[in-house]
C-alpha cells in the first residue's frame, strides 16, 4: 500500500531532475574518478529528491517515511544476504565449497564447463527459489573451478548469473515470482507458464553460446599442473569427502519441501558449522569467527586463497549498505511522485499492446536502474500499468511477465542495484579493487537480457501475447477501447 496521504505529481522536468543529476554524479564517480563506490552519489540523490519533495509541499517526515518504508520492505532480502555471508564462511570452513571445487575440477571438462555451470545454477535456483543463495554458494564454487580451468572470471560469472536468475524467475518459491502476480492480480502458476515463451528461448540461446565458447576458450587446454596444484592445495587444507556435500543437499531438499528460505539457509549454516567442528577440526569460536568475519586459509596457491578467504556477515556489509542507500533513494523517488510522474506520462501516450508492453518492460528496467531495487521495479510499474492493460483488453499476465523481465532478471546487470552489488561481491569480481574488466559479465549474462528482447519481439508480432478474453479475465467493453 502506498504511504502517500496526498497525490504528489511533480512536473516531468522536476521529476527527471534528481534522477538525471544523480546518474551524472554516479557517472563521474565511476568513470571519471575510476572508483566503483556508488554509495555517496546515491546518498546525494536522496537529498536532491528530498528537495523536490519539499518544493512539492511534502514535509521532511513524509519524505523520510517514504524512504524508510521501502527500506523496511527489503529487510527479508537483507536477512538472506546476512545468511548467505554466514553460509559462505561456514561452507568453506566445513569443506563443502572446497569439495565442490575439487570434484568439479575432476569431473567437468573445460569445454563443457560454462554450459554445465549454467544448468547447475538453474536447477539449484529453481529448487531454492533464491538466486542470491545460489550465486553465493554454488556460484562461488564454480568461480573456483573456472579459475582452475583458466577461464576468464567474467565468462564464468555470466554463466552463473544466467542460470541463477533463470531459476529465480520461474521458481514458485521465489519472492519476486510471487510478487509480480500479486501486484497484477494474476495467478502464480499462470504467470510462470506465461514466462516460458521468453525464458526458454533465452536459456537455449545462452546454453548454445556457452557451449560454443567453452570449446573456444578451452582450445588451448588448461595446464594440467595448474589443475593439480588447485586440487593439491584443497586436499592439503581440507579433508575432502563426498559427505561434505551434505549441507548443500540438505538445503536443496528443505527448499523442495517448501520450507521458507531464511530457516532453510540457517539450517545450512548450522550443519556446516557442525561439520567444520567435527570433521575439519575447527573450534566453536573459530566457527563463530568464520560466520562473522569469513574463512581464512593459506593453501600455497594465491588464486585459490583469493577464493577461499572470504565469506562472513561482515563481507556483506559493503553490499548491504549500498542496497539500503539505493532503496532509500528509490523510496524517496516513489514518495515524491517522481517515478510515478514519468511512468504516467508513458501510460498516457501508448495505445497499442506493442507500445504498452515495451513501455512496461522499459519502465521496470529504468526503475531498476534508478531506484536500485528489483522489488520496486516490479511493484511500481505493475500498479501503474495495470489499468492500461484492462483498457486495451489484454491480459495482465503480459504485464506480470514484463515486470519480471525488466525487474528480476535485469537487476544483476546493474552494478549499483541490489542484485548487481550482490553478484559483484559474492563472486569476488573485485570491481571496487579496479578489476573493471570483470564488468563484462553483464553482456555475457545472455539469458538475462535476451528474455526482455523476446518479450518486446512478441509484443510487436502478437505471438504469446494473450488477450483478457483468452485468459478469462474481466475486460472492459470493447467499445471503450481505443483503436490499436
What are the salient characteristics of this protein?
24 helices; mainly alpha; 73% helix; disordered N terminus
Structural description of this entry:
The chain is mostly helical and 484 residues long. The chain contains 24 helices and no strands. The protein has helices at residues 12-32, 39-55, 60-73, 75-94, 96-107, 110-128, 131-149, 153-170, 175-184, 188-217, 224-237, 246-256, 261-278, 284-293, 302-308, 317-335, 338-349, 353-371, 374-392, 396-406, 418-426, 441-444, 446-461, 468-471.
Summarize the structure.
With 484 residues, the protein is an all-alpha fold. It contains 24 helices and no strands. The radius of gyration is 23 Å and the shape is globular.
Total beta strands:
0
In terms of DSSP E residues, the strand content is: under 5%
Helix content: over 70%
Q: How far is the first residue's CA from the last residue's CA?
A: 32 Å
Report the uncertain regions. Answer: 1-5, 475-484
Q: Which word captures the global form?
A: globular
The mean pLDDT is: 87
SSE-based structural type: mainly alpha
Q: How would you name the oligomeric state of the polypeptide chains in this document?
A: single chain
Q: What does the largest sheet look like?
A: none
Q: Please tell me how large the radius of gyration is.
A: 23 Å
SSE arrangement, N to C: HHHHHHHHHHHHHHHHHHHHHHHH
Count up the helices: 24
Any chance you could write out the topology, listing elements then pairs?
Blueprint: H1 12-32, H2 39-55, H3 60-73, H4 75-94, H5 96-107, H6 110-128, H7 131-149, H8 153-170, H9 175-184, H10 188-217, H11 224-237, H12 246-256, H13 261-278, H14 284-293, H15 302-308, H16 317-335, H17 338-349, H18 353-371, H19 374-392, H20 396-406, H21 418-426, H22 441-444, H23 446-461, H24 468-471
Helix pairs in contact: 1-2, 1-17, 2-16, 3-16, 4-7, 4-13, 4-14, 5-7, 5-11, 6-7, 6-8, 6-10, 7-8, 7-21, 8-10, 9-19, 9-20, 10-20, 10-23, 12-13, 16-21, 17-18, 17-19, 18-19, 18-20, 18-23, 19-20, 20-23
Amino acid at each position: 500500500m502506498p504511504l502517500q496521504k496526498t497525490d504528489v505529481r511533480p512536473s516531468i522536468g522536476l521529476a527527471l531532475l534528481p534522477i538525471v543529476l544523480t546518474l551524472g554524479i554516479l557517472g563521474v564517480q565511476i568513470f571519471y574518478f575510476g572508483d566503483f563506490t556508488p554509495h555517496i552519489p546515491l546518498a546525494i540523490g536522496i537529498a536532491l529528491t528530498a528537495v523536490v519533495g519539499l518544493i512539492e509541499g511534502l514535509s521532511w517526515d513524509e519524505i523520510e517515511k517514504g524512504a524508510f518504508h521501502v527500506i523496511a520492505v527489503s529487510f527479508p532480502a537483507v536477512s538472506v544476504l546476512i545468511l548467505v555471508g554466514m553460509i559462505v564462511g561456514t561452507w568453506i570452513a566445513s569443506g563443502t565449497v572446497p569439495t565442490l571445487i575439487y570434484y568439479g575440477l575432476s569431473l567437468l571438462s573445460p569445454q563443457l564447463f560454462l554450459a554445465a555451470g549454467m544448468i547447475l545454477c538453474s536447477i539449484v535456483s529453481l529448487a531454492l527459489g533464491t538466486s542470491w543463495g545460489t550465486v553465493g554458494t554454488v556460484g562461488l564454487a564454480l568461480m573456483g573451478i573456472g579459475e582452475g580451468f583458466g577461464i576468464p572470471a567474467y565468462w564464468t560469472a555470466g554463466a552463473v548469473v544466467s542460470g541463477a536468475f533463470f531459476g529465480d524467475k520461474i521458481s514458485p518459491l521465489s519472492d519476486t515470482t510471487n510478487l509480480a502476480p500479486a501486484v497484477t492480480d494474476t495467478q502464480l502458476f499462470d504467470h510462470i507458464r506465461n514466462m516460458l515463451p521468453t525464458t526458454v528461448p533465452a536459456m537455449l540461446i545462452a546454453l548454445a553460446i556457452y557451449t560454443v565458447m567453452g570449446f573456444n576458450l578451452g582450445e588451448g587446454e588448461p595446464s594440467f599442473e595448474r589443475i593439480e596444484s588447485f586440487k593439491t592445495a584443497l586436499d592439503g587444507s581440507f579433508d575432502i569427502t563426498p559427505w561434505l556435500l551434505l549441507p548443500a543437499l540438505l538445503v536443496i531438499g528443505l527448499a523442495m519441501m517448501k520450507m521458507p528460505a531464511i530457516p532453510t539457509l540457517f539450517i545450512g549454516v548450522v550443519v556446516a558449522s557442525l561439520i567444520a567442528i567435527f570433521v575439519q577440526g575447527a573450534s566453536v569460536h573459530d566457527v563463530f569467527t568464520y560466520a562473522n568475519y569469513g574463512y581464512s586459509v593459506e593453501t600455497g596457491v594465491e588464486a585459490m586463497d583469493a577464493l577461499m578467504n572470504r565469506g562472513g556477515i561482515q563481507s556483506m556489509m559493503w553490499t548491504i549498505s549500498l542496497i539500503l542507500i539505493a532503496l532509500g533513494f528509490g523510496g524517496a523517488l516513489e514518495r515524491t511522485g517522481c517515478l510515478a510522474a514519468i511512468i504516467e506520462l508513458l501510460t498516457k501516450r501508448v495505445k497499442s499492446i506493442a507500445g504498452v508492453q515495451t513501455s512496461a518492460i522499459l519502465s521496470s528496467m529504468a526503475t531498476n536502474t534508478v531506484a536500485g531495487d528489483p522489488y520496486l521495479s516490479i511493484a511500481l510499474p505493475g500498479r501503474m500499468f495495470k489499468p492500461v492493460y484492462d483498457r486495451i483488453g489484454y491480459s495482465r499476465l503480459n504485464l506480470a511477465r514484463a515486470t519480471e523481465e525488466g525487474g528480476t532478471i535485469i537487476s544483476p546487470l546493474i552494478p549499483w542495484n541490489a542484485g548487481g552489488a550482490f553478484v559483484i561481491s559474492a563472486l569476488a569480481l573485485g570491481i571496487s579493487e579496479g578489476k573493471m574488466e570483470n564488468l563484462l559479465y553483464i553482456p555475457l549474462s545472455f539469458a538475462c537480457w535476451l528474455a526482455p528482447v523476446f518479450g518486446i519481439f512478441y509484443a510487436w508480432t502478437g505471438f504469446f501475447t494473450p488477450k483478457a478474453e483468452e485468459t478469462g479475465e474481466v475486460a472492459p467493453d470493447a467499445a471503450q477501447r481505443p483503436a490499436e
